[in-house]
Amino acid sequence: MTSRLAIKLTPRANVDKVEGWDVDPEGRPVLKVRVRAQPVEGEANAALIALLAKVLGVPRRHVNLSRGSQSRLKMVEVTGLNDAEVRERLP
Q1: What distance in Å separates the CA atoms of residue 58 and residue 81, rounded to the nearest whole number?
Q2: Interval 59-86: pLDDT, tens
Q3: What is the 3-state secondary structure (H, E, C) of 67-81?
Q4: Rounded CA gap, 34 and 83, in Å?
Q5: Whole-number Cα distances in Å, 24 to 6, 17, 21, 28, 37
Q6: What angle do CA 32, 77, 14 make, to 5 degrees?
Q7: How confident is the model at residue 51 (pLDDT cuts 50, 70, 90)?
Q8: How far apart are CA 87 and CA 44, in angstroms?
């Protein structure tokens, strides 16, 4: 069981926070997330994975950055949860 999430990440924020759902220019749902970490040497990506694991209640090893490591738009895969369970656990 794997769920995929499109993420719009904002680094250098005041707090680590999942802000909720938005829509990208093509009309696809995207989860807006802010992290305090800087986008240097993967720090922001690591903070994103840690935050999502905490919010979703899964181990970090179940959250994987599958696309967009150098971009603000990312694709994250969460193993162990289906799409409905992921959406239920997110704000």
Answers
A1: 9
A2: 999 999 999 999 999 999 999 999 999 9
A3: ECCCCCEEEEEEECC
A4: 21
A5: 9, 19, 10, 5, 23
A6: 30
A7: very high
A8: 22
CA 57 – CA 25 distance, rounded (Å): 30
Q: Quick one: tokens of 41?
A: 């040497």
Helices (H) and strands (E) in the chain, counts: 2, 5
Please state, in angstroms and rounded to a whole number, the distance separating the CA atoms of residues 39 and 24: 21
- Pick the closest to residue 51 from 78, 16, 80 (CA basis): 16
